[in-house]
Design a protein that fits this description.
Blueprint (H helix, E strand, L loop, with lengths): L3 E4 L5 E4 L3 H9 L8 H28 L7 H14 L1
Antiparallel strand pairs: 1-2
């Protein structure tokens, strides 16, 4: 994973975890031929925030179950809970 700081339009310092190339491929799969850097950054930020939130919910589920390891069931339940609370 990449870990480097990037300044977004809001001026905040943001740690990037998902590489730009991966985000670029995801967007290209939608059928577009060209993708702007700002579009990549916008989706990158959103996906990382979504992933972090899901991970926090899964952590709570795992701890509540008395486990130290998050498993697939925890993630799936966390996704369901996240969608339910939207």
């Amino acid at each position: 994973m990449l870990n480097f700081s990037r300044n977004f339009n809001s001026g905040e310092n943001y740690m990037v975890e998902i590489p730009n190339s991966s985000i670029h491929r995801i967007i290209r799969k939608s059928g577009v031929k060209r993708v702007s850097k700002s579009a990549i950054i916008a989706l990158q930020k959103e996906l990382e925030e979504y992933g972090l939130e899901i991970s926090k919910i899964a952590r709570d589920i795992s701890l509540y179950s008395g486990k130290k390891t998050i498993d697939e069931k925890d993630i799936n339940l966390a996704i369901w809970k996240f969608k339910l609370n939207k």
